[in-house]
Amino acid sequence: MVGHLNLILRLVIWFLLTADFSVANIIIGVSIALLLPGRHKGPEALKDWLRVLGEIVVALPQAYIEAFEIIIRPHKYEDITMERVKPRRTPGLIFLDIFLITFTPKTIVLKYHEEGWYEVHRVRRRKIVGQKEG
Known about the structure:
Blueprint: H1 2-18, H2 23-35, H3 46-72, E1 77-84, H4 91-103, E2 107-113, E3 117-124
Antiparallel strand pairs: 1-3, 2-3
């Protein structure tokens, strides 16, 4: 089941990159998705995939709310934080985590560190106590 989710994720990325749903492009996309090497270090947990997909559904309204907040009340402060990657994350789940963080208007992942950290840039409405100006 999880192998199917990896295949679907690869195809979705392919179609987002190409924006072409012709028969030839579908054949090319399926071929590439099948030929890309998979991870053989252990089975991915289906519950992790379902949890991330549920978080994506929740992120959609959150993104609209944050966009309106930025329009209505300016966010003048920003900071960069390091967030720990959840344990046992496969490359597909790491991609979805980065997508989730970057999808909302107030946050963006600047870098993924192989040691298991995301470098996240955030905009905030208020200054955090102890944060340096500028």
